[in-house]
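**Fold in tokens:**
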Amino acid sequence: MAFVPLITPSRSFVPARIPQLSPRLPQAVPVVSRGRMSPSLPKMTAVAQPSTAASKLTDAAELISRTNVFIFDCDGVIWRGDSLIDGIPQTIEYLRSIGKRVFFVTNNSTKSRAGYLKKFTKLGLDAQAEEIFSSSFAAAAYLEQTNFKETGKKVYIIGEIGIPQELDLIDVPYIGGPDDSAKQPNMDPGGRLEHDPDVGAVIVGFDRFINYYKIQYAQLCINENPGCKFIATNLDAVTHLTDAQEWAGNGAMVGAIRGCTGQEPILVGKPSPLMIDYIVSKYDIERSEICMVGDRLDTDILFGKDNGLSSVLALSGVTTEARLKDPTNDIQPDSYVDSIADFLPRQ
């Protein structure tokens, strides 16, 4: 697979093979700002272009007959918080029973792949570890691809346990993360926060315990350590911590670091092609066979459209039908459903 540099020239790198994952992953890309993403993030031209309004899928039989692989987002499609959405186990079981391959690709970095497998099991869903791809995995894979370990540098983490667990698997040293959740910088007269000059990358993932210490430490590393990479697991504006309401997403954390550094992050989660290119290459799948199903226009649906997949929007998550049909929305799926339970055959 050819690698075309997409990040800024000052941060160019030599792609590296990922021994334990194989095949190679593509490079991550600079941020794209569409739809509900933070207004502080600059707009870039995306591949997806304005199109006619999507129609509601009233009979899934034709879609299912021409699709061999379904990629499902998790939050808002499979579950909300820790609550399973109605009809999901039956839908997944049905698709598998008729020979369809299923993958789960989530932008949520709070868990590793192993952590997500435990959540699937707890919710009574049948899933295999190799079917699950999280943005914490994508961040680790990006570092492996770029030969980060060979630099002798370490990573500073804003994020929860998922990122450290994935970095442990590739033996990349790190600091921060959950260990810094209770720390406070000395802001008395003359106070300063000392940072590690050996930090060569800052990964910003969703962090329910983000604080001023973490923000200051991250900006010092990015601003003062030559060549330090700024990596974002995702730019989701909101997320589902509970099934009662939407909560501020990782776009808030990334926005804070962008604001104090003036730097653009390298995005490894959706809509970056990193994870889909890995799946296509590893499992020898044609993109025309794949349908991306998600609840977000600016990540899931854009991920599908930019990467040559068919796409279905599920209204069980953050996007409403009104938002989908708003004249200002220029990201349209091929069709939409109330939830993926609509894939089940009609009785």
